[in-house]
Design brief:
The structure is a single chain. The chain has 341 residues and is of the alpha+beta class. Helix content is 45%, strand content 17%. The protein has twelve helices and ten strands. The strands form three sheets. A five-stranded antiparallel beta sheet has the order 7-3-10-9-8, with helices on both faces. Helix 5 packs across helix 12 and helix 8 runs antiparallel to helix 9. It is elongated and about 90 Å long. The mean pLDDT is 89.
């Protein structure tokens, strides 16, 4: 049996009413909410059909109906997404966003916290993975007799730092020479093109001149490797305790937030725009009544990261969709310096 327009109206109304008040929906209440000329008895029959089809559930014989996960999926997939965010809400988000630290090391962690605080739910930001990422410049700074700091600037304008502790002393003239070697050999080259054999040969050459050179090279290699393996940022876990929705599975939700690799798979949007994944659709146990609302932001034309909020199924989806989409737009504009069309 296909879902017709009347069924769609009933599913949409029951889902929205249940989101609003959390109570099973009776046929009389549904009739009052719908702008259609049908009797309460007709609505009861239609609700019974939708129950058989798996869209509704009846907790008790005499109770009304509540939406199932199948109904939530239908509701989200068929939402009207033509609404636009209000200027007042945009201004509030922009104001919160403008407070972020522009420093590359703090920008995304702070953005995650702002997103969580503004929406009132735990938030996740996954940094972009850029296979074409390169370093444009390296600079070694001596901070102690046996300590140097390696500063690397990427072609995306990010600044990476790494403290390297040496086994021996290194002169300033040697430091200048090593700066030249790193910039000549390792700049503007993708990590995939710098294979292990190349590094091994270069390390032997440098170690023959000074063992400290070899240590600096290893630090540089680790910096290049880690530049594309940034942590996933999570903020607002404490907000899970402010609602009863997670009282039966809060430890499982928290476990997922600590499982970086699984979390990245869960929040990765399947398409452009805002997408939703429900807990029962995941290969993770005991995530009922949980959903992940995610979208992409961009660092380049084909280089994207993801932002997501973790919330109960009973949320105002249209409101969250607009706010998350605008937040992603601001992230993209800040990182790229332009708005993605």
């Amino acid at each position: 049996m296909d879902i017709n327009q009347r069924h769609k109206m009933i599913i949409d109304a029951i889902v929205q009413m249940y989101i609003d008040n959390g109570e099973p929906i009776a046929s009389q209440a549904l009739q009052d909410a719908l702008d259609i000329q049908v009797s309460s008895a007709t609505l009861r029959n239609e609700m019974a059909r939708l129950t058989k089809l798996g869209y509704l559930n009846q907790p008790h014989v005499s109770a009304g109906r509540i939406p199932t996960n199948k109904a939530y999926r239908y509701y989200v997939d068929n939402m009207d997404r033509k609404r636009e965010i209000s200027p007042a809400v945009k201004e509030k988000i922009k104001e919160a966003f403008d407070s972020l630290d522009a420093d590359s090391a703090r920008f995304l962690p702070e953005a995650t916290k702002v997103l969580s605080d503004f929406l009132g739910y735990p938030a996740v930001v996954v940094p972009p993975k850029d296979d074409e990422l390169q370093f444009a410049h390296f600079q070694l700074l001596k901070t102690g007799r046996y300590t140097v700091v390696l500063v690397g600037t990427t072609t995306r304008g990010e600044v990476q730092t790494r403290v390297i502790r040496l086994k021996g002393d290194i002169e300033n003239t040697e430091l200048l020479q090593l700066n030249q070697i790193l910039n000549m050999r390792l700049c503007f080259t993708c990590i995939d093109d710098l294979n292990l054999r190349y590094f091994t040969r270069l390390e032997k050459q440098l170690a023959a001149e000074n063992p400290a050179y070899s240590q600096v090279l290893k630090g540089c290699i680790n910096m290049i490797k880690s530049a594309n393996h940034k942590p996933v940022y999570v903020s607002g876990e404490e907000k899970l305790f402010r609602t009863d929705h997670f009282k039966n599975n809060i430890s499982d939700v928290l476990s997922l937030l600590r499982d970086t690799e699984m979390l990245k798979k869960v929040v990765e949007p399947k398409y452009d725009g805002v997408s939703v994944v429900f807990g029962d659709e995941l290969p993770v146990k005991n995530l009922e009544n949980t959903c992940f609302i995610s979208t992409k932001y961009y660092r380049g034309s084909a280089v994207s990261g993801a932002i997501s909020v973790i919330c109960p199924q009973t949320v105002q989806y249209d409101d969250l969709f607009l706010k998350i989409a605008y937040f992603a737009q601001l992230l993209t504009q800040t990182i790229t310096g332009t708005e993605r069309k």
